[in-house]
Design goal:
Blueprint: E1 12-25, E2 28-29, E3 35-42, E4 45-49, E5 69-72, E6 77-80, E7 90-94, E8 100-104, H1 108-126
Antiparallel strand pairs: 1-2, 1-3, 1-8, 3-4, 4-5, 6-7, 7-8
The structure holds (1S,3S,4S)-1,3,4-triphospho-MYO-inositol (I3S).
Length: about 130
């Protein structure tokens, strides 16, 4: 039944643990501070949670957890950024507001999945 479907804005696309650092805020460069983050791709947003241990894909629900921060993917840009870190498997996410994040995983397949899924959401938002 269509009425039982969640609204698009609450659709859970993907969730998992990535290493994250913010490198710019409103275009101003920040000092790197890498930390593991529970990352949830839901609707138009990428949402970061501080305590990865308290979060699992099955237990996560929109509204019952307190996110550390969230990123609006509309107009965002994604690019591989192995030149911006000594770590492997790094990509950069830049928001329209000039916030920049690096996301990283030791697992090649996992980071590629994240890149492709986020990119597909960004592409979908362009055509909405
Ligand atoms: O690009 P950078 O500045 O060389 O990044 C490294 C530093 O931010 C370093 O912190 P301190 O400069 O505060 O010691 C971090 O610990 C490193 O992880 C950063 O480099 P990687 O290559 O890991 O992104």
């Amino acid at each position: 039944h269509p009425l039982l479907l969640p609204p698009l804005s609450h659709e859970l696309e993907k969730a998992g643990l990535l290493n994250k650092t913010k490198i710019a805020e409103g275009g101003r460069k920040l000092r790197k501070n890498w930390n593991p983050s529970w990352v949830v791709l839901v609707g138009n947003s990428l949402v970061f949670f501080k305590d990865p241990k308290s979060q699992t894909p099955s237990s996560w629900k929109p509204g019952n957890s307190c996110p550390e921060s969230s990123v609006d993917l509309r107009g965002a840009q994604l690019q591989w950024a192995n030149n911006l870190s000594s770590k492997k498997n790094v990509f950069k996410l830049r928001t329209v507001t000039g916030n920049e994040f690096l996301l990283q995983s030791e697992t090649d397949s996992l980071i590629r999945e994240w890149f492709n899924t986020i990119q597909s959401v960004i592409d979908r938002l362009v055509s909405l």
